[in-house]
Specification:
By secondary structure, this protein is of the alpha+beta class. It is built from seven helices and 19 strands. Strands 8, 11, 12, 14, 15 and 18 form a six-stranded mixed sheet that branches.
Length: 339
Amino acid sequence: MVAVGALSGEGATDRAVSVADAAAHGLGERWAGVPALLLEAPGPGSTSEDPEALLHELVHIWLRSRGAPEPAWATRVSKDEPGVIIATRESGVIEEALADFITASRSRSPVLYRASARPGTPARSVRGRGARCPEAFSGRPHADASVLSGALWDVVTRHGAEAHGILLTALAKVAPSHTHEVRALAKALTAELKRRAPKVARVWAKVVDERGLGRCQEPISLTLQRTFQSPLVQPVIPGKRGDTPMASLQRYEVQVSGSRTLSVGVRFDGQAPPNLRWDFVDARGRRVDASSSVLDAQTSSMASTRLAVPPRATRLLFRLSNPQSTPIAFDDIKVISVN
């Protein structure tokens, strides 16, 4: 059962939303615990009269009903289990991509929401032409979703209309339990497609490589000369689990226009780990050499490095990695321009 209500409040940017509890959004106590769609009032160009907008929001509710956690628009880490990530902004990217692709598959068109398009919220294409990870991730889930939805649509384009049903069936199996990371979902979908439709699996594997889905990680912006600290809980680099690849913290993005040399420092909660790993890449995913060093690792709680900024670079991405099974907590990160 799903309740339907009207959006309220001035200045709202969303024109259609799904919520977990209708009663909490003014639909009455009788609807307590019942999911709801909140839409614009009926009228020309309204989301309440756009079947594609309705289906998009219903996909969000379907994912909740299948056990997928509520997506986060900022990274959330479990306070009870250090190192366990509950949800990241990537979960929002995945949900938006799935909602768009499932809607596009139903309508058999990659261009969606034309019935409710207006200036500021135009029709949206799921193709995501040219969108690749990691450089395409901007931290805006609705825009970043085209990386994944575009990959799924590429499979349909290359294999044919039969792929719609095959992909939807496979996604129904794996998506609800893999909304944490794009690369985890891509890997799970590969395994499911190999079992169901090997030919489609081969196309999907090629698309995953072309789109860089195995390298997707959301960026968190760092500002030069200012310290970054998590606004929620203490940042944690998750530990390696079983035979999974090395677990990494989300990528960090630094705007570096005008800088020739950067100094990056990470202050840890306690002793800095001697086997900390990090790497730096430019906007095209090319590695940037850095003389990494851990300062007096046995007694110091600080790790730092310096690196030269490549010519014409406007931003750099860096990633802290933890090869151990034990999570590593840290307090803050600071990036300083050294000219």
